[in-house]
Amino acid sequence: MHTQKKRHSATSDHLTGRCISVVVPVYNEERTIEEILRRSLLQPSVAQLIAVDDGSSDTTWERLKKAAAHDKRLKILQHPQNRGKGAAIRTALPHAASPLILIQDGDLEYDPEDYGRLLERMRRGAQVVYGSRFLQPASGGAYSSTFWHRSGNRLLTLLVNAVSGQRLSDSATCYKMFRQEVLQQIELEEERFGFCPEVTMKVSHLGIRIVEIPIRYQFRTRAEGKKIRLTDGFKAVYCLLRYGYFH
Hints:
This protein is α/β, with parallel strands linked by helices. The protein has a single domain, classed as CATH 3.90.550.10. The protein is built from 8 helices and 7 strands; from the N terminus they run βαβαβαβαβαβααβα. It has a 7-stranded mixed beta sheet, sandwiched between helices. Helix 1 (33-41) links the parallel strand 1 and strand 2 (46-54). Helix 5 (147-164) runs parallel beside helix 8 and helix 7 packs parallel to helix 8.
């Protein structure tokens, strides 16, 4: 990993008030989307929320339109067909106008009340902060999921660390917060869940040390709408090697 570069243009003086653009890729989340939007917009640090409906076949888009009519901070975009999480994030990023950008899933596995804790590390000088499900949360709760889900995430993170030189405990976490100028240096390419290893590798190539903080996490099952599959794990390893060694 390259020596970390100091960026004097990224001071923390402007990280006050509403300074976060929240990017929400959404696919068939009619049961949870209104609640996660409500919780996110309640956070005092949120300047805007950009939700991208990634070709949903349920009532997600109608619910997004209804929510957007009640809060001007909410911008909604739509893909006519499902393209994947990475594609939805790429669609949203040109509309993000705040100093900080945070990724938020459209379900209720992650708690927006943790925004402030990620923001605090940014104010202390971090350029990229990940919220880890494996570090002990301030609430005292523990990462609760299936054995295979935990094991797969830990194995992937070990591989990410070996290739990137990072010291992460949870590379596949949803909660990733970036300074705007960091993402502006990266050309994202992945359409689906390969976004996670891709962005971690490309941040690492910039010489940036990723900071982690513990977050709260409520695992949901496939029956409850969880979309990631075993094949996504294999693709993540492919992306890790591609962007780590051959890109």
